[in-house]
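Hi, here's the filled form for the chain we discussed.

Project: internal
Contact: R.S.
Residues: 222
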Amino acid sequence: MEKHVVVIYPHPDDEAFGASGTITQFRQQGVPVTYLCGTLGEMGRNMGNPAFANRETLSEFRKQELIDACEVMDVELRMLGYRDKTLEFEERDEVAEHLKGILEEIEPSLVITHYPEHAVHPDHNAMGAAAIEAVKRIDESKRPKVWAQAISNNHLELLGEPDVVNNVRPVFKQKMQTIMAHRSQAQGVLGKMKDDPEAETDLEAIAMERLGTESFYTWKFD
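And the returned structure, exactly as it came back:
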């Protein structure tokens, strides 16, 4: 069993769609989980459906949604304070050192983050790369494992089968609650999963089909 798990993603809701089932499973085992969230997602396109936020207010809504989602998952939240859509322009060394300091404080046995260059969004790739660099800088005797999540369309072709495939259907109610805590984003993201946008379809059933497993690659350090 893991001693402590640290999840590092750049945006509120990355954890919900990407790893909340796995996080819930760890919490059910009594494993502490800390989420290091890079930004408040203040440059996101979704403003609620129907819209209830605007460009000026979105950051405050997303901050509260993030807090609510972490309460659903029962995890510790630390907000890192970076700006949305600018992580790729931050100095990698500085972000890595920032993360390294937190990781050395917490001393997790496992870090979950995005797989660099296979995470679609520039912020995802940048935060994943900084997280892996942070772990690499930790003394090998204390270095946690890293599970890297790839979400690019061609990751199976280029990386092969993932090392860890978690069936999270048994905890999907909790995963869906975590997703729906991100009220400004959930309907927009889930709606894109529908084959027919006009059809009356059970979004939870669609989400379970698409998001019922969570897969990760174990990062291999040189």
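Let me know if anything looks off before we file it.
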